[in-house]
Design goal:
Length: 273
């Protein structure tokens, strides 16, 4: 009798354990699906860069500044401020940097080999350590961080410079490709400007203006559930009202709209000048 009870219990236990393990395994995906969590290639690339050690050499978020004795400017180049333009002639060469440590064009050049011997730290070859998808995502991250994708429209281009100046990308990710974690917020992260999150949060220019000037909008403030998350979130959208003038507001709006329009996405980076 006892043995039968134990057998019954242990069967139940394994079934229960299996169900718990399964739901724990799928929980993040179900959670993301239900909430409509937005994923962009640069954000995936950021995560790959973080776990691949790229930032240990290329500086926090790829902003450079790490010493490299004997290297160009005695520093490891970053990905920001137009830097990739001085190193690669095409996006394919960016991939070659990641996969082989440098483009074939350079690796075959004796002067390059000599210069490499004289520098303390070399770019590692990641071939065999990254999937093709991970390499694409890394390139998408480098693209968005590079500062080399600039609107043709003058007002929107000024908006981009202001976005750097006011630190918008610190929170919203490179080119607004989605920001970092934000504990207490509805989706758990700072929304980006690329797709659904933006369309949920910004219905028209009035709301876009509201976000930038006041850090919040009436439609959400009046909704008790949204209000709960607005108050619970730890990182909030700052109100720029007292810090920008009308012209700057228009420029920032023009830039955010241009990013959201996404026309630039398929265009290759202007490299190799
Ligand atoms: C051990 C240090 C180190 C690590 C780790 C590293 N790099 Fe580099 N990387 C370098 C150095 C040094 C250069 C300059 C290469 C040269 O001298 O030709 C470089 C150059 C580059 C370049 C071209 C220059 C530029 O800044 O645009 C790219 C792109 C690049 N690395 C991407 C990456 C990515 C992506 C990762 C992670 C997957 C990574 N690197 C990891 C050291 C590193
Ligand atoms: C300190 C971090 C931080 C900075 C800096 C910041 N934002 Fe935000 N922003 C947020 C957060 C958090 C939200 C979401 C707020 C909410 O849901 O209540 C947000 C929301 C927004 C939204 C609403 C829609 C969306 O998808 O993001 C826009 C548009 C926006 N910010 C634009 C900007 C601009 C333009 C700048 C620079 C002038 C900027 N933000 C600077 C944190 C920041």
């Amino acid at each position: 009798m006892l043995r039968r009870v134990i057998a019954w219990l242990s069967r139940r236990f394994w079934v229960a354990a299996f169900v718990v393990a399964l739901s724990l395994h799928f929980y993040p995906r179900i959670h993301d699906l239900v909430l409509g969590v937005e994923v962009t290639p640069p954000m995936r690339g950021y995560a790959v860069a973080l776990r691949s050690g790229c930032f240990t050499c290329h500086g926090p978020n790829g902003t450079g500044g790490v010493k490299n004795y004997g290297g160009e400017d005695d520093e490891i180049p970053g990905f920001a401020g137009g830097t990739p333009m001085m190193w690669a002639k095409s996006e394919f060469e960016l991939q070659e940097y990641i996969l082989d440590g440098a483009p074939a064009r350079k690796r075959g050049d004796p002067r390059y080999k000599e210069a490499q011997r004289k520098q303390l730290i070399a770019m590692p070859a990641y071939r065999g350590h990254l999937s093709p998808q991970e390499v694409d995502d890394l390139v998408a991250f480098v693209r968005a961080t590079s500062g080399l994708i600039v609107p043709a429209d003058e007002v929107a281009a000024q908006g981009q410079e202001l976005a750097y100046k006011f630190g918008c990308f610190q929170c919203h990710g490179p080119m607004g490709a989605r920001g970092s974690s934000n504990p207490g917020s509805l989706k758990g992260y700072i929304p980006g400007w690329w797709s659904n999150d933006f369309h949920d949060l910004v219905r028209d220019d009035g709301e876009l203006r509201g976000w930038i000037l006041d850090g919040q909008i009436e439609r959400l403030r009046d909704n008790p559930i949204a209000r709960h998350f607005i108050e619970a979130q730890r990182v909030y959208m700052p109100a720029y009202r007292d810090f920008i003038n009308d012209k700057q507001l228009e420029a920032l709006m023009g830039y955010v709209r241009w990013v959201n329009n996404g026309e630039w996405q398929g265009k290759p980076l202007a490299l190799g000048h």
